[in-house]
Amino acid sequence: MALRLKQKMMVLPVVASVFLVAIVAVTVGLGTRTRSASDRIGFSLAPSVSQAQTARAGFAALHQDVGDAVALHAVQRQTLEAQVTELTTGLKALRGMKDVDVARVEALQEAFTGYWQEASKVVSLAAQNSAGADEALAKLAPAHKTVHDGLEAVTAQQEAAQREAFTEMESLHGTTLTWVLLLSVACIAALAALTVWLLREVTLPLARLTETATRIARDGDLTQPIDTSAQDEVGELARSIETLMKRLRSVPGTLHSVVTELTAAAARLNTASHEQLNFLTNQSRSLTEASSTIAEIAQTSGMAASRAEMVLKVAAQADAFSSSGQVSIERSAEGLQQIRQRVGALVGSIGHLSEQAVHAGEIIGSVKDLADQSNVLALNAAIEAARAGEEGRGFAVVAKEMRALSGQSLQSTQRIGKILLEINQAIRQTVSIAEGDSQKMEEGIEQVLASATTLKDITQVVQESSQAARQIVASVTQQNAGITQMTEVVTQLSEMMSDVVMATSNAEEAVGQINTSLGKLQELSTSFRV
């Protein structure tokens, strides 16, 4: 079963704790036994040995005093009895101690009691200076030997028990040291082995993963192999980093392809913007020329209006002359000749005006085509901006404004076309009327020159000519107003086209900024090695 990282990290303290508990258990167990042996020595064996040795020494002193009493005839019975009492008390105390052979001590007490009974007789004989004191002392030797041997045996037994207790304590102490040393060595070996195992299972994989992550962060190297064989958290981390590297490997390629596509789109957009800027510049120049042409048309229309007024004045004069009678026929004929010449000039001017109106219609057609092309270019720019996504939103706004301007230009062109159509119709009517009037004036002149009787008809023709002149004046005035309105429209269209040119220039700058951003993205996409 594979261990998790937390379990692996707990192995070392758990093993150390187990060995520590074992060392403590061995130390406590053997220490308890050692302390028990020490207590036995200190509280039982050592006092019993001391008491036995004291009793032995006291008995030897007592026997020596008994011998001295016989030999020196100096009996100190109270001293001897005090010694006997002390020995009896000591034997009783020895009998009550632990680790003492009670039966042997009781036998020793009986032997000592027998000894003292005989020794008392010897002391009594010595106090009486009896000759039998020496004989009684000699008979006391077996009892002395029995007590002495008994004390020696008890002392030897207690001393042997004490030595055994010391030996056991030393053995327990050595065993404790041996077990502690063995467990310590085993603990150190196990901890060293576990340390090497943790180093191989945890520390080295983490160090390799750290180095891999560092190289990815520092060098962008995504080609490094990763060991994912571990089944713990380190293995999961390694597999996660490997998955991250796989995903990161796809990012530079995707980013590079996207940047390439965006660069190509930006280049196309830049080219289209540049072409549109040139086209709009040409369109603005054409509108300027159209404005100049319309100004010339307006000037010509003004001249036609002034001449129409002159015709109206002449017609009034002719009407006055016709009313003056036959006397002024020749003068009227001359006036009619002048009228015919001026009407001819008027017809020529009106014809020239008609030609100018036709040219204006052609210019309006060019403007309409230009507006259509601007609309198409704006539509293409909007499509390219939509493909560019978030970066092309600003250019999409510009394209929308361009389409709106193109629509306004188209509407203005249609209005101008209608106005020019009305002007052309008025001019054609004027030309038709002028030609009819001219023909009638020719007939009138011929009739005036042929006969004075046709004065009435000439007067009527003059009146009709005067009416036609009024119509010409009205038509020319209307034409002049239409041309003025067309001039204003063309001027407004020229200003709007200037705004469109400026917006297109801003869009071209935005495309340049997009190219700069794409260059940075290109550098970022090439900073990874896959």
From TrEMBL:
<feature type="domain" description="HAMP">
    <location>
        <begin position="200"/>
        <end position="253"/>
    </location>
</feature>
<dbReference type="InterPro" id="IPR003660">
    <property type="entry name" value="HAMP_dom"/>
</dbReference>
<dbReference type="Pfam" id="PF00672">
    <property type="entry name" value="HAMP"/>
</dbReference>
<feature type="transmembrane region" description="Helical">
    <location>
        <begin position="177"/>
        <end position="199"/>
    </location>
</feature>
<dbReference type="Pfam" id="PF00015">
    <property type="entry name" value="MCPsignal"/>
</dbReference>
<feature type="domain" description="Methyl-accepting transducer">
    <location>
        <begin position="258"/>
        <end position="494"/>
    </location>
</feature>
<comment type="similarity">
    <text>Belongs to the methyl-accepting chemotaxis (MCP) protein family.</text>
</comment>
<dbReference type="InterPro" id="IPR004089">
    <property type="entry name" value="MCPsignal_dom"/>
</dbReference>
<keyword id="KW-0807">Transducer</keyword>
<protein>
    <submittedName>
        <fullName>Methyl-accepting chemotaxis protein</fullName>
    </submittedName>
</protein>
<keyword id="KW-0812">Transmembrane</keyword>
<keyword id="KW-1133">Transmembrane helix</keyword>
<keyword id="KW-0472">Membrane</keyword>
